[in-house]
Design goal:
The protein is an alpha/beta fold. 38% of the residues lie in helices and 19% in strands. Strands 1, 2, 3, 4, 5, 14, 15, 16 and 17 form a 9-stranded mixed beta sheet that branches. An 8-stranded parallel beta sheet has the order 6-7-8-9-10-11-12-13. Strand 7, helix 3 and strand 8 form a beta-alpha-beta unit. Helix 3 packs parallel to helix 5, helix 7 packs parallel to helix 8 and helix 12 crosses helix 13. The structure holds zinc ion. The site of zinc ion has 6 residues, from loops.
């Protein structure tokens, strides 16, 4: 733990992420114990305070990722060229069952470290590789070993949710490990197939009985559809705490049911763009007034930092608007989605999705999850004219200077504090060795390099045979 009683971030541009989306230049943020104690100019630093110079930097709340399969970070980058089909085959059908408890642990530890390094202070661990309760214990051990804030969203893709959620082992796990403290929340994570018999009903009833939220991949092209939403709605299982992930291929009727029941949507733009759940849906969600949070989904494809999420979400939304306008022979003259909106989704939006009004904004009395973006060695750090635009389009992980979680300094001067990265590396290397040797070299290589479909190059009417033959002629020496 830190050996100072308070932390003062001095003289930064503060984005408190309040309702007014204020921008506070030359402002101090004082943290005492686990809370934001004061925000203002020229604040006094009590005895024993760590003072951090935030001049030329941006101080904002810690970011919240509402959907990440942290165990898959052990396979970082392996699936860069996958589609959803290859992902499903690899994790659900073929190789997901090779993960031992220690492999879940290794992935979770690395993902948790990666998150705080990037200023993501709360992560929902959508942990659907929990084949046994030993795997779940390993997941919790890992999350507890890194000083980030987490929500374990318990799942098991190898068993129907009605089975694992009603097992005595699961109940015992919840009683033993889920203690209700605010560093580790709990949700149930499972998908609704749309089977008219609604076999997921008992799992929803377990969640209701436990008083915990359900998070579900909804509107995933070819996997989950409007049928699942209708079944949930008819069963009375759509609530304000339900988090719908992707929701990228739903009808207006489903969006209306989500809006009417107060749930929120976790948009994973980089995932939707590459994997194919559907077009990143913010353009549709905005029209229905549904709350949005952002997520990175899995580091088996993408990074685990929300700067990428903010950037790609702005790009996807604007692309869609331009494309739709051009189809009507019109021009978009004003962007509807602004940088301040995606920064809000990455902070306050995530906190609200989790029912945590004490996170996601810097207000006196709130939990002190705080990020300072500042990099005096970077040519991209100035001029700082539009702070929201700077966060969304200019900043990156390396610019995260200082991070506090629950008032504790976990990153300082661009360096992680009290984190054993070497041990995390050794654990992940051991997991990779295990998977690679279990799969065999050929399967390992094929898994990482899916076949490329044959491309048909279109005929080009501007290619002149005569011109080409002339060029060939001139380049060929003649006798
Ligand atoms: Zn996912």
């Amino acid at each position: 733990m830190n050996d100072f009683s308070a932390v003062l971030l001095r003289g930064g541009t503060v984005l408190p992420m309040d309702r007014a989306r204020s921008v506070l230049p030359d402002t101090d943020v004082l943290v005492v114990a686990d809370r934001v104690a004061a925000i203002g100019r020229d604040l006094d630093a009590p005895e024993g305070t760590l003072v951090v110079d935030a001049t030329d930097g941006i101080v904002m709340p810690g970011m919240v990722d509402t959907h990440r399969h942290m165990w898959q970070t052990a396979m970082r980058g392996y699936g860069a060229d996958w589609t959803l089909t290859q992902y499903f085959v690899w994790y659900y059908l073929d190789h997901g069952t090779l993960f031992r408890p220690e492999d879940i642990h290794a992935g979770n530890v690395l993902a948790a470290i990666e998150a705080i390094d990037a200023g993501v202070t709360t992560v929902v661990d959508w942990s659907h590789g929990l084949r046994t309760v030993d795997h779940a214990d390993a997941a919790v051990d890992a999350l507890r070993s890194v000083p980030g804030r987490h929500v374990l969203a318990y799942g098991n893709i190898q068993q129907p949710p009605a089975e694992w959620s009603r097992s005595p082992e699961f109940r015992d796990f919840v009683a033993r490990r889920i203690t209700g403290d605010d560093m580790l929340g709990f949700q149930l994570a499972f998908d609704v197939t749309g089977d008219p018999a609604f076999p997921e009903r008992p799992a929803f009833e377990v969640a209701r009985e436990l008083g915990v939220a359900v998070t579900t991949h909804a509107g995933v092209w070819g996997a989950t559809s409007d049928d699942g939403i209708r079944l949930m709605h008819d069963g009375g299982f759509m609530t304000e705490s339900t988090v719908y992930v992707h929701a990228a291929s739903l009808s207006a009727d489903s969006y209306q049911r989500i809006a009417a029941t107060g749930g929120s949507i976790s948009v994973s733009t980089e995932s939707e763009q590459s994997a194919g759940q559907g077009y990143p849906p913010t353009w549709a969600i905005r029209a229905h007034g549904i709350p949005v949070s952002l997520s990175m989904d899995t580091s088996v494809w993408w990074s685990g930092d929300l700067f990428s999420a903010m950037r790609s979400t702005l790009g996807a939304d604007r692309s869609r608007e331009h494309l739709a306008a051009h189809a009507r022979n019109e021009t978009v003259t004003h962007c509807a989605l602004r940088a301040e909106h995606v920064v809000e989704w990455a902070t306050r939006g995530g906190a609200e999705a989790l029912g945590r009004t004490d996170l996601g904004s810097l207000e006196v009395g709130n939990k002190a999850d705080v990020v300072l973006i500042k990099n005096d060695h970077s040519p991209v750090s100035f001029p700082l004219l539009n702070p929201y635009g700077h966060v969304a389009f200019q900043a990156q992980r390396g610019d995260v200077h200082t991070v506090l979680v629950d008032g504790r300094v976990v990153k300082k001067d661009h360096r992680l504090v009290d984190v054993d990265l070497a041990a995390a590396r050794r654990a992940v290397e051991s997991t990779v060795d295990h998977l690679r040797s279990s799969m065999g070299e050929e399967a390992w290589r094929q898994g990482m390099n899916p076949d490329i479909p044959e491309a048909k190059v279109m005929d080009n009417p501007y290619t002149y045979t005569d011109y080409r033959s002339t060029t060939t002629h001139s380049a060929t020496p003649t006798a």
